[in-house]
Design a protein that fits this description.
InterPro entries: ADH-like_C, ADH-like_N, ADH_Zn_CS, ER, GroES-like_sf, NAD(P)-bd_dom_sf
Largest sheet: 7 strands, mixed
Radius of gyration: 20 Å
Family: Belongs to the zinc-containing alcohol dehydrogenase family.
CATH topology of the largest domain: Quinone Oxidoreductase, Chain A, domain 1
CATH architecture of the largest domain: Alpha-Beta Complex
Pfam families: ADH_N (PF08240), ADH_zinc_N (PF00107)
Number of helices: 11
CATH class of the largest domain: Alpha Beta
Organism: Nocardia nova
CATH superfamily of the largest domain: Medium-chain alcohol dehydrogenases, catalytic domain
Distance between the termini: 16 Å
Keywords: Metal-binding, Oxidoreductase, Zinc
Order of helices and strands: EEEHEEEHHEEEEHEHEHEHEHEHEHEHE
Helix content: 25-40%
């Protein structure tokens, strides 16, 4: 079938909307008509360093839509189901078998190899392959092929602009709090970086009764939004003389938990310094190499957790996020700015400039 997709022709080039051909789903695959797709920094960082030999390429990894067709081996979904797409996993390795598919031993092959496990791609243009399979979906397109492992049914009345970010950004931030740190009511929690992932962590912490919840971000509008969604305070790391002292004062001696979304050594070391003894830090920001100051880690008995995708099992965790949203405890819509699919580059620029938190591309019917 002929569809439209946002294609990059070579690494670090702009998205261009073009007609491409999409194969019918294989036996274990699902055809999804995309209604919305979140735009994430992972799409942009991957675009910048994507290998030439896997170009042209279609990105997009926060898709949502309607099931249009299913393969013969698909048993848990039917045509017409509303679904949220997320990362793919094998389902049989040790991490998958123990409820931790974000650490699937085949994660790279299934999510960032440019196609299926067998190295084929369902997309083509003028008879030549167009690479795909980004996070098992490549949802910057009017239709996408996914597998049952990375397709989660959601309520039909859940707004697409809310459903889309659940598959990555929201589950990453919320999962760091709920699945990894397992923060409890009354505990103090600091979030470094108030983008989409960080604000999702803030909302999850507020939802389970953490107090106080503190956000740290240099952008005034994001600090304001953090307070609006429940943070007790939001600090500017640039104008605040001593962030560590500020956090200690607000938490009565140091935070119980901290989530860093920046991947920056300076901020990570400050987060460690601001923790109380035996506090826990979750790292979700994919930065470069980071030098940690070991004495505070060791002398305070700090636990540091590396986190991908919120250590989530999407089949269980995305429905939990949907329920929190229905209860008014996870107001994802407060983070979202909608853009027509055709305006994808405008959405990219708005995100780069910090004018929006979570851009979501909306597709026509």
């Amino acid at each position: 079938m002929r569809i439209q997709a946002a294609v990059i022709e070579s690494p670090d080039t702009a998205f261009t909307i073009d007609d491409v051909d999409l194969e019918a789903p294989c036996a274990d695959e699902i055809l999804v008509r995309i209604t919305a797709a979140g735009l994430c920094h992972t799409d942009l960082s991957s675009r910048a360093r994507w290998p030439q030999q896997l170009s042209p390429m279609v990105f997009g990894h926060e898709g949502t839509g309607i099931v249009e067709a299913i393969g013969a081996e698909v048993t848990g979904l039917v045509v017409g189901d509303a679904v949220c797409l997320t990362f793919d996993s094998c389902g049989v390795c040790a991490p998958c078998s123990t409820g931790h598919p974000a650490y699937c031993t085949d994660f790279q092959v299934l999510n960032s190899s440019g196609g299926r496990r067998d190295r084929t791609t369902p997309l083509s243009r003028a008879g030549e392959p167009v690479f795909s399979g980004f996070f098992g979906q490549s949802s910057f397109a009017t239709y996408a092929i996914a597998r049952e492992r990375n397709t989660v049914k959601v309520p039909a009345d859940l707004p697409p602009a809310v459903a889309a970010p659940l598959g990555c950004g929201v589950q990453t931030g919320a999962g760091a709090v709920l699945n990894v740190l397992r923060a409890e009511a009354g505990s103090s929690l600091v979030v470094i970086g108030a983008g989409g992932v960080g604000l999702s962590a803030v909302m999850a912490a507020v939802a389970v009764g953490c107090s106080p919840v503190i956000a740290v971000d240099p952008v005034a509008s994001r600090r304001e939004l953090a307070v609006e969604v429940g943070a007790a305070a939001a600090l500017d790391p640039i104008s605040t003389d001593d962030i560590v002292a500020g956090i200690r004062e607000l938490t009565g001696g140091g935070s119980d938990y901290s989530v860093d979304t920046t991947g920056r050594a300076e901020m990570i070391n400050q987060a460690v310094a601001a923790l109380r003894p035996r506090g826990s830090l979750a790292l979700v920001g994919l930065g470069a190499q980071v030098a940690l100051d070991l004495p505070p880690l060791l002398l305070k008995g700090v636990s540091v957790h590396g986190v991908i995708e919120g250590d989530s099992d999407p089949a269980e965790f995305i429905p939990r996020l949907v329920e929190l949203h229905r209860q008014g405890l996870l107001p994802v819509e407060r983070l979202v700015t909608e853009f027509p699919f055709a305006d994808i580059e405008a959405a990219v620029e708005a995100m780069r400039q910090g004018r929006v938190v979570k851009p979501v591309l909306i597709f026509g019917s």
